[in-house]
């Protein structure tokens, strides 16, 4: 796991290697200073040799300056390496998420993914920076200081060994208990982020139902859970300070007492005053760096939970992958379901779709109706391979969808989802999302992606494309207007002061539900797809506009296969054929007249809606 994550250091390997080198230089210079101080006291101050004092004092200043600059450079490169590592981790995770199928995404909550991309990566970044600086500095200081101490006096240096063993035992006990607490804390951030996300995204509903107090209470509960866990963990780690102080001051007392006796009794032959000062300096260096090591272990224990959570995303294997030799061209819009069974979990026992057998000709308009939970959306999601079937096959253009390049297939299957999503930007920016990607072979026979403004042919290779020309811009604008005219979106766009340059707020909050649906339909039409799927995409549109859209589709894009999921019979009765779904199965498939004559569910819904009910679920429930 660690090896995999460290592979994301990439271009920051140089900075990562430079940091510990500068840390070692800093430590060496720091450890030389106490030895120089001993020489300055013994050979300079005690003997009144001013030249020696100035000489050693100069060397101490030089050593301090070198240590200072080495520390600054170490900090600089550590920051560069850790922030670069965090950047690469976030990019790696985000890129990985883009390859996930719906089934993969269903394993992670939205809040969980956000936490992993923010809080968890920040924890790993801090731990990585700490490791680069302190994991080399602290052990190097301990080793050098111990060697120096034993070279001065073995008897007194044994005090350090006893102190180190005592501290190591206490710190190991503290770390083992603190680690368990920290591991419980970070998953709780998911609940906190989920609370914030739901509140912000549904703020209008919260205010409409005057539920602010409830949301505040929910947030406070999630926040308190984190507070309690961290308080428990911090209460454990607070023992580090008192134990450290006890050990340091005990060592100082013992060194001072034993050292003073040795100096007096031996008349400075066994131990000098300068040596005693050096030993006291090394005492502080050894014990303080031992404490730093304990902090590193605590930091690592905190970040291990984050390491695991990040690794879960990076190692998640996408359920849907490109075949080894993909097909790049979709012949036409014909669709075939051949004995299809589907369940969201591979090891699940109950099928969401059972034994689906359908044949749809290219250019047909197919209506799909059914009660809530009858798997209408799941059925059409299999066409663009948002999910893969468990049994059987789905064919588009005469070939199994699993044989196609995923992007090539989805470029030919435009889907207007049940939940319409618009992005912040102008109307033109949102329509540009539907700008078609075409694929062609270059002069070397390699498949490349090209852009196509007008939908009539490739104009430039993506990645090395020139600035958009005036002709291309006009062609694109004309294509946008054509798509909006088909979706009846031009009716309200032309009335806006800024027209197609009108800014859309995030989520499309400044346009109505019907306007949002028509813009999403226009965006889907920008691809000029072979298959167009409208998943209950005209539910917020009035019946006259709905009829205009269907009439425009029939006249302007007759070659496109159209699948229309709807609750209103009026939206599908003019379709070439209609699919009636019930409990994940096809209950009926035929024309409006055939279903009226031979399908009880369809007939009940039709009678209830023409009688004034207009509610599919209610009618279905009355059966």
Could you give a short account of the major beta sheet?
6 strands, mixed
Q: Provide the CATH architecture of the largest domain.
A: Up-down Bundle
CATH class of the largest domain: Mainly Alpha
The name CATH uses for the topology of the largest domain is ABC transporter transmembrane region fold
The proportion of residues forming helix, as a percent range, comes to 55-70%
Q: Order of strands in the sheet with the most strands?
A: 6-12-13-3-14-15
Sheet/helix structural class: alpha/beta
Distance between the termini: 56 Å
Q: Mean pLDDT, rounded to whole units? A: 82
In the residues, how many domains can be counted? 2
Description:
- With 623 residues, this protein is of the alpha/beta class.
- It has 2 domains: 2-315, ABC transporter type 1, transmembrane domain (ABC transporter transmembrane region fold); 335-622, 3-Layer(aba) Sandwich (Rossmann fold).
- The chain has 21 helices and 15 strands.
- The strands form 4 sheets. The chain has a 6-stranded mixed sheet. It has a 4-stranded antiparallel sheet with strand order 2-1-4-5, with no helix packed on it. A 3-stranded antiparallel sheet has the order 8-9-10, with no helix packed on it.
- It is elongated.
- It starts with a helix and ends with a helix.
